[in-house]
């Protein structure tokens, strides 16, 4: 009986963390920044890391008051770069996706002067969680051509 209880406890101690990694994978956001691109846009970049054992998708993003946010991806066709709106960005298990200038990014429009000193955006995940991204001012490395 005692052995069965010990085995049950050990099994539970193993299964609970595994279940968490599968049901609600841990995620992390790092290296965030916001850059204002005059006259009326700003870009938010960061690294989104999925530390879990199943895919996690970012399905929407909220913008600071006075601005509007969209998820974009930059695609290249020869020498032409085009930004396209995307509905979601999925990150595989134990993987990371970099949001930045020439890849996926969050584009802010509207009163971007409100985010000149930093921005807070919220990412909504496919499992309902909301992840806050605090983005300090960037370094001016964003590439944007009309």
UniProtKB/TrEMBL annotation:
UniProt xrefs under SUPFAM superfamilies: DR1885-like metal-binding protein (SSF110087)
Protein's name in the database: Copper chaperone PCu(A)C
